[in-house]
Amino acid sequence: MTSTMPPAMPGSRRAVPDTLTPDQQARLRWLLEDPDHWVRRNKWEHFLLRGDESVVVETDGLTDDQKIAALAWLRQQRHRLHAVLEGGPSAPDGWLEAFPLYDRLGGDRR
User: Fold this and answer.
1) How far apart are CA 105 and CA 90, in angstroms?
2) CB-side neighbour CA atoms (13 Å) of 7
3) Contact indicator for 55, 27 with CB cutoff of 8 Å
4) What's the pLDDT tens digit per position in 51-107?
5) CA angle, 12 as apex, 11 and 14 as ends, to 5°?
6) φ, ψ (nearest 5 deg) of residue 38
C-alpha cells in the first residue's frame, strides 16, 4: 500500500505534527480563531502543510455529524495543538474552549 503522506509527517491528517513552520503555525492559529471556517481531516495535510486554501469549508455548511467529529478531533488533539502553538506539555483548562471555532462547532453543547 502506498501513502501520499510525506515521510516526516506520519499520520498528519489525524494528528498535529511535533513541529510546524511559522507559516504553518499561523494557518493553524487562524483556523482555530476563525469560527466560520474548518478543514476536513482528509484535507488537513493540504491546508496545514501546503497552505491550500481551496480545501477550507464554511462551518455553517458542515452537518451535525461533521461538527461532532471536528469537536472530537480538537478535543483529542488539544495538548498537541497547545504544544505547537504555545509551547508546554499540556493545554491548561479552558484553553481550547476559548477559541471561537470551538463554540461555533457546538463546544460545550455537545
Assistant:
1) 22
2) 0
3) no
4) 999 999 999 999 999 999 999 999 999 999 999 999 988 999 999 999 999 999 998
5) 70
6) -150, 165
Cα–Cα distance for residue pair 82/57, rounded to 1 Å: 23
CB-count burial class (<10 Å; 0-12, 13-18, 19+) for 97 = middle
Q: Are 83 and 20 in contact (CB under 8 A)?
A: no
Check if the beta carbon of residue 96 is closer than 8 Å to that of residue 75: yes
Q: How far apart are CA 105 and CA 31, in angstroms?
A: 12
The label of the residue with cell 481550547 reads: 96
pTM, two decimal places: 0.81
